[in-house]
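User: Teach me something about this protein's shape.
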Amino acid sequence: MPRILLFLAVMAVVATSAAAQSDCRIQPASALRDLLSSVNAERAAAGRHALVLSSQLNRAAQGHACDMVRRDYFSHRSPNNGTLTTRIKAAGYTACYANENIAFGQPTRDRVIVAWMRSSGHRRNILDKRITEVGFGYSGSGGARKWVMVGARPCDARIPRQPAPNEQTPNNNQYQNN
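Assistant: First, the predicted structure itself:
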């Protein structure tokens, strides 16, 4: 009987590890576009320029979400001292500016965006005028899901100029870079 219990315990650990591993891939393009759309809607409401998805930032964000689930922690700094800077560099991204939001427990995209927008620091990161690109990652399920948003600006990018409150912009939502 003890061997059977030991075997079942080992199998449960293996199954849990396999499930965590299988969820640690870049999320489907449709899910990433939905997150981008939600963030850009919040930015538009605040008069900010739209962000574009970066595959490198998606990799950095997804890697951090998976690492938090695998190692069972919740922090901007990983247990092996990995930081936002080291994660985005490892993904091949050269940033002159970057920020990061993390969240834990929101089961859906809508709920995580609402939670971030209700937090002054997370809201500030989402609406940050200095970022031009973004990446997202999430891992886990239901109330145990961990979310990551990485916003950044590559060193060769210009920050789009924000229109004055009463300024007419071409094509309604397109801003000119001056």
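Now, about its shape. The helical segments are 2-22, 29-45, 55-71, 84-90, 109-118, 120-127. The beta strands are 52-53, 95-104, 133-139, 146-154. If you'd like, I can walk through any region in more detail.
User: That's plenty for now, thanks!
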